[in-house]
Design a protein that fits this description.
The chain is α/β, with parallel strands linked by helices. The protein folds into two domains: about 5-165, Alpha-Beta Complex (Spore Coat Polysaccharide Biosynthesis Protein SpsA, Chain A); about 175-540, CDP-alcohol phosphotransferase transmembrane (TM) domain (Four Helix Bundle (Hemerythrin (Met), subunit A)), CATH 1.20.120. It has 18 helices and nine strands. It has helices at about 15-25, 40-50, 100-115, 120-130, 150-165, 165-175, 180-200, 205-225, 230-255, 260-290, 295-325, 350-360, 360-405, 440-455, 460-485, 490-495, 500-510, 515-540; strands at about 5-10, 30-35, 35-40, 55-60, 70, 75, 90-95, 135-140, 145-150. Helix 11 (about 295-325) runs parallel beside helix 15 (about 460-485). The longest helix is centred in the last third of the chain and has 44 residues, at about 360-405. One of its GO terms (biological process) is phospholipid biosynthetic process. It comes from Actinobacteria bacterium BACL2 MAG-120802-bin41. Belongs to the CDP-alcohol phosphatidyltransferase class-I family. This is DUF5941 domain-containing protein.
């Protein structure tokens, strides 16, 4: 358990005043536990051992429950004196109140005290925080029973079940993501669980596992470079092993509760490097047998880049817009919260998994790469992949455009989009609510112009692939920084010349028949090495736990 926690057991006689006094008397976060709650230790660890910057409540999925969760945040809660209009969770009776929100919390609890409404202190505290719009995150309890009941027999029954539970297996199950892609959930993570258990036993760290997966992925790309069937088969198998191991790092982080910004960045960028190096390997392997597949390889990389950036930016943009719903406080003394239900009916199981597959996530993509390369070689891979990517994009973007049209006609809040511009002139500010597409469109403009320059100068080869790859990596770097509310240092952006400078330099170099290898090395040293080192060194001391 986090040592910076003060725990209070809430009984029927506990008052909100006592909760407030306990909170004000310490500089530690305050953990409230209902005496009528029986909760498995791994579930309680979601509150005590995970890195938290805001308050958090433990909840369990329940249709028409007593709590409403939106965007992984408590939107409304219940008590003896308060009701939710519509609920999708039940409050499990465990609440961590963060000192990072000290002033907001004190103000909200004081208002609750002044109102003198009856009810359990932990429920009243949660209602007070949510109605005052203090951020309270939701930690979902699943994979094991719990109880919150005044009936002693119910509590004893659940406690007995938990005593016979294998806590290690429960932690492993909780660490194994159940909302991943179809292929990942039903195949990859069946194997990754075994490796995660082994990694726990040998005390490996998540970052070590990430680097192992990275090494396997790079060797897979090397095998594809050889061009022979046996090496292609080996490369395909290694690519699948790489993604299985890649599942382990996140599972291990969740199991051991060892998280860091560095780890999240490392996991994300290595996935992109592995995938694009496989494209490079397939193109080189095909070249050895007389096939020129550089343009298809580059096009596939550009398609994936456009899609990846828009995926991340759309998801974060939706989250930022949803958070604006939490700005207006709700009257604490009102019986009902007045929230208009907007929740969609859950999809059927078949429709849900078909939707997951059509999104063409990394598991499915890498399966197609492996299978198509073995079946028909690189040319077949670069034929099948764009077709499947186009079908996926057609379905996904149709839904996103329809959803965006229902949004307010204003840009996203914060630096999410601006941190990814990387342009002195092009801003695309006019697209307003569609600004989640701006980074992808800017990348498309730059890379298509570069592709045109290289094609008309007959400079499509491994060198030009690496030039565009390093630029793409630079944009991914900007994306991952912006997702953590950070910007790349100005000096790094200036050395990268921005979009306009890179186009000018590479245009002059190509038309002037310069040796492009020097530019490739410059961008590699700047974007792959220097920028990565800057990120690593700046976050090395920021590891959480």
């Amino acid at each position: 358990m986090d040592k910076s926690l003060t725990t209070v057991l809430v009984t029927s006689s506990t008052t909100v005043r006592e909760v407030l006094d306990s909170f004000k008397a310490t500089t530690d976060d305050l953990l409230l536990l209902d005496q009528n709650s029986v909760i498995a230790k791994p579930h309680l660890e979601l509150l005590t051992d995970y890195p938290r910057s805001a308050s958090v409540a433990l909840v369990a999925t329940e249709k028409n429950g007593d709590t409403l969760v939106r965007q992984n945040r408590i939107a409304s809660a219940s008590s003896q004196s308060h009701k939710v209009t519509v609920g999708n969770r039940n409050f499990a009776g465990a609440l961590r109140i963060s000192q990072n929100q000290r002033e907001e919390v004190i103000k909200a609890l004081e208002e609750a005290i002044d109102s003198r409404l009856p009810g359990n202190a932990i429920d009243l505290s949660l209602v007070a925080l949510t109605r005052a719009r203090v951020q309270v995150d939701a930690a979902d309890l699943w994979a094991a029973p719990y109880a919150r009941s005044a009936d002693n027999l119910v509590r004893e029954s659940v406690a007995s079940e938990l005593e016979n539970l294998n806590l290690g297996q429960l932690r492993l199950k909780m660490a194994n993501r159940a909302n991943d892609g179809f292929y990942s959930v039903f195949f990859l993570r069946k194997f990754s669980k075994l490796l995660t258990w082994l990694a726990v036993r040998v005390k490996a760290t998540p970052n070590q596992v990430t680097l192992i997966s990275f090494a396997i992925g790079l060797y897979s790309a090397f095998c594809f470079m050889q061009g022979s069937f046996s090496q292609t088969l080996l490369g395909a198998v290694l690519l699948q092993i790489s993604i299985i191991v890649d599942c382990v790092d996140g599972e291990l982080a969740r199991y051991t509760r060892k998280f860091s910004k560095l780890g999240a960045w490392l996991d994300a960028v290595t996935d992109r490097v592995k995938e694009y190096m496989v494209f490079l390997g397939l193109a080189i392997g095909a070249e050895k047998s007389g096939e020129d597949l550089w343009i298809p390889a580059l096009v596939m990389m550009l398609i994936q880049t456009f899609r990846h950036l828009s995926d991340y930016n759309f998801a974060r943009s939706v989250k930022l817009r949803a958070e604006s719903q939490f700005l207006a406080p709700i009257d604490y003394t009102a019986d009902f919260d007045g929230i208009v239900p907007t929740e969609r009916e859950p999809k059927g199981r078949l429709r849900y998994w078909l939707g997951k597959i059509i999104q063409f996530p990394i598991g499915e993509r890498w399966l197609v790469i492996s299978a198509s390369a073995v079946i028909g070689g690189a040319s077949f891979t670069f034929t099948v992949m764009p077709i499947l990517a186009a079908i996926s994009a057609l379905v996904v973007y149709r839904g996103r455009i329809m959803r965006t049209l229902k949004m307010e006609r204003v840009p996203s809040r914060g630096i999410l989009i601006s941190a990814q511009q990387d342009s002195l002139i092009l801003k695309l500010n006019f697209i307003k609510r569609f600004d989640w597409l701006a980074p992808s469109l800017l990348r498309a403009i730059e890379t298509l112009l570069l592709l045109w320059i290289f094609i008309i100068n007959e400079e499509i080869n491994a060198v030009t692939f690496m030039i565009i790859f390093t630029i793409v990596f630079h944009h991914y770097d900007n994306l991952y920084r912006s997702l953590q509310n950070e910007k790349k240092p100005v000096w790094l952006s200036r050395l990268g010349l921005f979009i306009e400078g890179r186009l000018l330099l590479l245009g002059i170099a190509a038309f002037g028949e310069w040796n492009l290898s020097y530019i490739a090395w410059y961008f590699a040293l700047l974007f792959l090495l220097t920028s990565s080192l800057q990120w690593v060194l700046s976050h090395r001391a920021n590891k959480v736990r």
